[in-house]
């Protein structure tokens, strides 16, 4: 029987954990008054904030600062563990709106252990209070080396069209000329728009988009490295392996094995009230 809906912003405790079982969907844009430390136990999620869209791969963590407008999108089934922390409990919060990072083994175990204290817990539970205080103090150390697993968001319709065209043709031998035509701009103007508006080049945007999509595909059940390489525009498995390893610090096959053996079942998910 599903648990009742919970409004996480009305929970009395200043720190608690919530688990989610997500199906393919996109949440409304929303804001929480607490910081969030997210851990993708399985599946991959997209975290979108004003300036960027991040990929949270399986068995990796993310930080979203309190008061930051964001939404969560997933194209596959995923399980998520989120610790909510009042800003006053975090002595040295990570800088910026959002970060994605690799957790040490101790941190993963602490996040999984925290699932016993949900939003309904008593604020006077001394063990829980001590546990979340320790977790909050360790957070700055865990997030000290964020990974740049993100794509910029467009601020103008022309760049949005160019990005959408690029993302829709990751498997194809796509060119800047094709993206410029989709945007209704010259190649030179589009290249300048990417530099000025997105602070990257179109070529880098394409490369990072292919790597992020590869990570997402490899997180799916039954994924295969060779098919994934073709699906993101690589004709050579060796070239794909080299690019993926440089981007993620893991070979594709190691990524696949880690995801397959590292899935840990979470307690029954608590349904939250969605914003918007």
TrEMBL record:
<dbReference type="InterPro" id="IPR009057">
    <property type="entry name" value="Homeodomain-like_sf"/>
</dbReference>
<keyword id="KW-0805">Transcription regulation</keyword>
<keyword id="KW-0804">Transcription</keyword>
<feature type="domain" description="HTH araC/xylS-type">
    <location>
        <begin position="160"/>
        <end position="258"/>
    </location>
</feature>
<dbReference type="InterPro" id="IPR014710">
    <property type="entry name" value="RmlC-like_jellyroll"/>
</dbReference>
<protein>
    <submittedName>
        <fullName>AraC family transcriptional regulator</fullName>
    </submittedName>
</protein>
<dbReference type="InterPro" id="IPR011051">
    <property type="entry name" value="RmlC_Cupin_sf"/>
</dbReference>
<dbReference type="Pfam" id="PF12833">
    <property type="entry name" value="HTH_18"/>
</dbReference>
<dbReference type="InterPro" id="IPR003313">
    <property type="entry name" value="AraC-bd"/>
</dbReference>
<keyword id="KW-0238">DNA-binding</keyword>
<dbReference type="InterPro" id="IPR018060">
    <property type="entry name" value="HTH_AraC"/>
</dbReference>
<dbReference type="GO" id="GO:0043565">
    <property type="term" value="F:sequence-specific DNA binding"/>
</dbReference>
<dbReference type="Pfam" id="PF02311">
    <property type="entry name" value="AraC_binding"/>
</dbReference>
<dbReference type="GO" id="GO:0003700">
    <property type="term" value="F:DNA-binding transcription factor activity"/>
</dbReference>
